[in-house]
Write a structure and sequence with these properties.
Elements (H helix, E strand, L loop, with lengths): L1 E4 L4 H12 L7 E4 L9 H4 L9 E3 L5 E2 L2 H9 L12 H30 L7 H20 L10 H16 L10 H10 L3 H5 L6
Helix pairs in contact: 1-3, 1-6, 4-5, 4-6
């Protein structure tokens, strides 16, 4: 299997953590790419019309995307406890928490592109603040659930851990830990896990 990814992408990191947890590292060929909304990458667009990372190309040439689909596919492979609950209330809670974490990332990545790609004279400060409000509100919601996180290490914990790691990486000025001791403690615990350490984004 070939994974087209950007080492700085938190969505790609989520997939890589799942691969580590499922013992699938040796089955993934890693192919770094660096698409931007204004600069598609031909190799990526040929297999994913959205031109987004991560994209997983299977042995038969079929492609899977986005990170939620790839993560659940990888979870169906390998051995050991599954990262996605099979059904019932536990599954829907895990998927909702994954969606919350992915929503934080959608908003944060949009702000990152706005600041890094758009010419300074065309920045839209009110739009940036609107995205950051989504991030902060969702962090507050997850803080209220922090006591229930981490009893097991599943897709919810992986997604939330990757979201918090991305805020440290790209938005240190947000100081997301302030007023959120539950999430802060959760992140300190999961951050020491081997799969999280091995997939840390590059510095800079």
């Amino acid at each position: 299997m070939k994974l087209l990814f950007n080492p700085a992408s938190p969505f790609a990191r989520k997939v890589l953590v799942v691969a580590h947890e499922r013992g699938l590292n040796g089955r993934l060929e890693l192919a770094p790419v660096a698409p931007l909304p204004i600069r598609p990458v031909a190799e990526l667009s040929q297999v994913n019309p959205l031109g987004k990372v991560p994209t997983l190309v299977l042995e038969d040439g079929a492609a899977l995307y986005d990170s939620r689909v790839i993560a659940e596919y990888l979870d169906s492979l390998g051995e050991g406890p599954r990262l996605f609950p099979a059904g019932g209330a536990a599954r829907w809670t895990a998927l909702r928490r994954q969606a919350a974490a992915d929503g934080i990332l959608d908003a944060a990545v949009a702000v990152r592109y706005e600041r890094a790609v758009r010419p300074p004279e065309r920045l839209f400060p009110e739009w940036v603040q609107g995205q950051l409000i989504k991030v902060r509100q969702t962090l507050d919601a997850l803080e209220r659930e922090a006591g229930a996180l981490g009893a097991a290490f599943g897709i919810a914990e992986i997604a939330i851990g990757c979201a918090l790691g991305y805020l440290d990486f790209r938005f240190p000025e947000e100081s997301w830990r302030t007023g959120r001791p539950g999430l802060s403690g959760f992140y300190e615990r999961v951050g020491t896990r081997g799969s999280m350490q091995a997939t840390r984004p590059p510095s800079g």
